[in-house]
DNA sequence: AAAACGCATGGTA
DNA sequence: GTACCATGCGTTT
């Protein structure tokens, strides 16, 4: 074996020496970072886990599985994926390990499942020539016997032992060093690093071919030694990798790791063990984030860790289901939320590059290979796994997935999961409907923000097909559900940004989101346990909450028999409609049990007061949500995406104003590029961070909303800053004068005069009298984690009212104006402008969308602007508005 | 003309 | 600044 696999013309397998083919297959990863190149025969042996069995039958280091007695070679890095180390000593083949895992379902188990890579690392070091990465398998897995869960070996012991177990190669010290550092600090960085690497791990079960021998592990000459080494490696590995993300909390040394990391039980999630590919190169301790067990990479560059969004999130049930009665072991590989393209008719499923390179066969030609995939029902599909050259990189796709996607009734936003079934080595494709996925995504988060549709019921009802419960989601997550029901979790964007938020909106949901602006407001509920701060703006009181409002349960307002005002609400569980007082404010999820107004109907078993006909009569009066729900209640009460804060408002408002919604076929998880004239919520919103800037004269709902809230927030800040200043501010506001206030310290809100950025960081606000528009300009100001609307000069044409096809803008304006008017009238009857649409009018006044000479044009400043980066436009005053997503407010009459 | 193909583009992380 | 990836869109079938 040569140190440079690619340099040689022959197979890397020293016992082969066959001339490599023109396109040599890549095997395990070498110290150099490259992958050894094998001849076809050896490659397949490697790929199928028969490598050692085939070539190293006579090597030392064979042990028997403590459970099934099967012989497994423990001293070979190539076989490291095939067994797991037991605390009491001995090893267990992965098949047994997996079984035990599934059976015991010990929450801590999953963590231990990740204690693989280190071993590989050790092995690598042990091996003087190479460290391997078995295709489709990972580093030596290690786990503790459930009963010995807390008896992990002290890291100190590990450290002291390590030197004895590894040879004196140079890499050892480095490894030990890094290990110590890791164990002792567990700094966040490491945590993150680990968590990422974790995902790369591919649990390789399997390869039950027991007899294996390290192909290039001269350093390990006898069983005992290798065994001990493995143990050590594993331990250290576990320790090293423990710092994982909450979702994959590695369970290493409970006594140290968990406490240090602060992981809690609720964070633990049973996740299928993943055999992790690990870069055993001790030299690059920080760069060992390569996928080890990953398949041979076409390109070593693909060794980076998988993004969390692709982490497989399997529950025991799912795994069990997949493995079924076949006694098979399932190895979760990755999952992906279907994009519109993926779910579209094109039939191409874009595969995350790293996933593709890690878990799918290496392909050197764009044409790729046909890949046989089995769905969770056992049906086999053949997709073309290929790639497109793309920016010096590759874009991997699975072609021909349409039939499969359709078979599973998947839509954009749903999640497909890829696993490997061992020992068959079959690729298994499962799925989770968006609703279920959402839950999964929120596993460590609250689901309190559900928008009114039962998250639990979704799983049951999401799939109208004959799929069993399990099948419905691919393999379902009963446990996940339980978790959610028991543990209040707060939903966060987590890995999913706003983009992903949109992704979660299924068609049904989108349709259900078709509520008017007023309705959207009506659905807003202050977040629990939050006391609003009441501020007065222009004589109107506003309740502000630090946290985003949540969407309340949609109800149907009606008049009771006695003429009293009532509202009808549908139970999340039984879908019966219950009558409630008109003033009842409901949480997003409401069930009969919460019907404190009518104890007799506080149970789902109680009959519905309304007849179907009566309800039907009511429906036209209610929004689409109710109507749709009535019709689909028994079918698919999928949850509506929980949109929070401004996003929610904006989306609802937009949708409510007649924005054409994507059809099922058009369901998109990621909006296409911004298109001229498109006024959808995507196009009118800037991407986070930089994004398109809204036109100065933009009066879209988003801008209006932002402006309004901005003003409110500004006012509050102002008020807090000083009474005097507040006095001045209010006075000036009412006079429609320019306000000057200090820039918020936290930069939550800031804007400037782009044309003449004020160094003093003063904020100027121009109020258009009583109008809704706030004329603002801002100087540069960094924004962090804020929603911002930017003027995007280059998109002015696109966003200009004139290009707004079909008066979408007008509708939005009207809706907003109506709402605001309503608010004002009900609150103080303030001097409202007679104009039906102040926003629009203001926009007109702003010069009909014409660029301002210097951004000082007050009328134009209604456009809030954000970042300093907007100064690219000469004349435009890229005023920027930024609002903390978390900050929200509800207006009260 | 429609569908499929595959590279290009650009938003996002 | 780079890489990824969703999807636009021109080209080919």
UniProtKB/TrEMBL annotation:
Domain of life: Eukaryota
Signal peptide: none
Domain CW-type: 562-612
Biased composition (Basic and acidic residues): 720-730
Keyword Transmembrane helix belongs to the record: no
Pfam families on file: B3, zf-CW, zf_VAL1_N
Listed Polar residues bias regions: 227-238, 875-893
Keyword annotations from UniProtKB, A to Z: DNA-binding, Metal-binding, Nucleus, Transcription, Transcription regulation, Zinc, Zinc-finger
Biased composition range(s): Low complexity: 826-839, 852-868
GO molecular function terms listed in the Swiss-Prot or TrEMBL record: DNA binding; zinc ion binding
Name by which UniProt lists this protein: B3 domain-containing protein
Source species of the chain: Pyrus ussuriensis x Pyrus communis
């Amino acid at each position: 074996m040569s140190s440079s696999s690619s340099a040689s013309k022959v197979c890397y397998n020293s016992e082969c020496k066959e001339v490599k083919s023109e396109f040599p297959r890549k095997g395990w990863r070498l110290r150099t970072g490259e992958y050894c190149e094998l001849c076809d025969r050896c490659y397949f042996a490697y790929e199928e886990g028969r490598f050692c069995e085939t070539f190293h039958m006579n090597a030392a280091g064979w042990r028997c599985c403590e459970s099934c007695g099967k012989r497994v070679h423990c001293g070979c890095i190539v076989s490291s994926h095939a067994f797991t180390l037991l605390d009491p000593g001995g090893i267990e083949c992965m098949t047994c390990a997996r079984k035990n895992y599934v059976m015991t379902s010990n929450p801590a188990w999953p963590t231990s499942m990740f204690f693989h890579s280190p071993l590989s690392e050790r092995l690598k070091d042990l091996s003087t020539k190479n460290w391997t990465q078995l295709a489709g398998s990972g580093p030596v897995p290690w786990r503790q016997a459930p009963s010995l869960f807390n008896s992990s070996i002290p890291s100190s012991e590990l450290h002291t032992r390590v030197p004895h177990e590894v040879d004196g190669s140079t890499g050892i010290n480095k490894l030990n060093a890094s290990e110590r550092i890791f164990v002792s600090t567990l700094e966040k960085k490491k945590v993150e690093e680990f968590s990422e690497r974790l995902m790369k791990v591919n649990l390789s079960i399997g390869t039950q071919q027991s007899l294996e021998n390290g192909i290039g592990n001269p350093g390990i000459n006898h069983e005992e030694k290798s065994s001990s080494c493995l143990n050590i490696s594993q331990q250290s590995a576990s320790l090293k990798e423990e710092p994982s993300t909450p979702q994959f909390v590695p369970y290493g040394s409970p006594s140290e790791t968990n406490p240090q990391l602060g992981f809690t039980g609720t964070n633990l999630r049973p996740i299928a063990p993943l055999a992790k590919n690990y870069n055993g190169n001790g030299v690059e301790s920080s760069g060992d984030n390569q996928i080890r067990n990953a398949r041979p990479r076409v390109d070593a560059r693909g060794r980076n860790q998988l993004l969390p969004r692709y982490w497989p999130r399997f529950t025991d049930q799912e795994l069990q289901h997949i493995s079924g009665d076949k006694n098979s072991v399932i190895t979760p590989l990755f999952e992906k939320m279907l994009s519109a393209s993926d779910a579209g008719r094109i039939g191409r499923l874009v595969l995350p590059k790293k996933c593709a390179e890690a878990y799918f066969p290496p392909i050197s030609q764009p044409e790729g290979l046909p890949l046989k995939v089995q769905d969770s029902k056992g049906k086999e599909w053949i997709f073309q796994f290929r790639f497109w050259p793309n920016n010096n990189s590759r874009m991997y796709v699975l072609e021909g997935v349409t039939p499969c996607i359709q078979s599973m009734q998947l839509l954009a936003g749903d999640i497909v999961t890829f696993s490997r079934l061992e020992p068959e080595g079959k690729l298994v494709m499962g799925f989770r409907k968006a609703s279920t996925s959402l839950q999964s995504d929120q596993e460590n988060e609250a689901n309190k923000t559900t928008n009114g549709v039962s998250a639990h019921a979704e799983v049951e009802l999401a799939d109208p097909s004959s799929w069993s419960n399990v099948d419905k989601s691919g393999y379902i997550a009963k446990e996940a559900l339980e978790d959610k029901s028991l543990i209040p979790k707060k939903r966060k964007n987590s890995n999913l940004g706003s983009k992903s938020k949109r992704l979660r909106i299924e068609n049904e949901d989108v349709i259900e989101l078709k509520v008017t602006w007023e309705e959207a407001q009506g659905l807003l509920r202050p977040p629990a346990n939050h006391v609003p701060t009441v501020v007065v703006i222009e004589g109107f009181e506003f309740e502000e909450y630090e946290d985003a409002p949540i969407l309340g349960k949609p109800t149907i307002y009606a008049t009771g028999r006695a003429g009293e005002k009532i509202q009808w609400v549908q139970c999340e569980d039984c879908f019966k409609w219950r009558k409630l007082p008109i003033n009842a404010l409901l949480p997003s999820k409401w069930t009969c049990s919460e019907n404190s107004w009518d104890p007799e109907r506080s149970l789902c078993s109680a009959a519905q007061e309304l007849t179907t006909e009566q309800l039907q009569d009511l429906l036209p009066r209610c929004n689409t949500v109710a109507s749709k729900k009535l019709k689909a209640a028994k079918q698919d009460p999928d949850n509506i995406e929980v949109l929070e804060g401004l996003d929610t408002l904006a989306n609802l408002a937009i949708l409510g104003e007649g924005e054409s919604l994507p059809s099922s076929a058009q369901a998109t998880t990621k909006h296409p590029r911004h298109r001229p004239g498109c006024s959808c919520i995507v196009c009118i919103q800037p991407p986070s961070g930089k994004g398109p800037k809204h036109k100065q004269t933009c009066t879209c709902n988003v801008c209006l909303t932002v402006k309004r809230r901005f003003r409110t927030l500004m006012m509050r800040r102002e008020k807090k800053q000083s009474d005097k200043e507040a006095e001045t501010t209010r006075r000036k506001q009412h006079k429609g004068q320019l306000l000057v206030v200090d820039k918020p310290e936290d930069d939550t809100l800031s804007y400037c005069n782009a044309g003449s950025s004020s160094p003093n960081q003063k904020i100027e606000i121009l109020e258009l009298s009583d109008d809704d528009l706030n004329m603002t300009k801002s100087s540069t100001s960094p924004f962090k984690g804020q929603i911002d609307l930017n003027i995007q000069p280059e998109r002015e044409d696109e966003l200009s009212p004139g290009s707004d096809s079909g008066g979408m803008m007008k509708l939005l304006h009207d809706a907003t104006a109506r709402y605001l008017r309503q608010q004002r009238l009900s609150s103080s009857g303030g001097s409202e402008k007679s104009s039906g649409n102040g926003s629009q009018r203001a926009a007109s006044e702003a010069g009909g969308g014409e660029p301002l000479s210097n951004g000082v044009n007050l009328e134009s400043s209604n456009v809030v602007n954000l970042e300093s980066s907007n100064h690219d436009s000469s004349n435009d005053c890229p005023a920027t508005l930024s609002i903390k997503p978390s900050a929200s407010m509800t207006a009260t009459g």
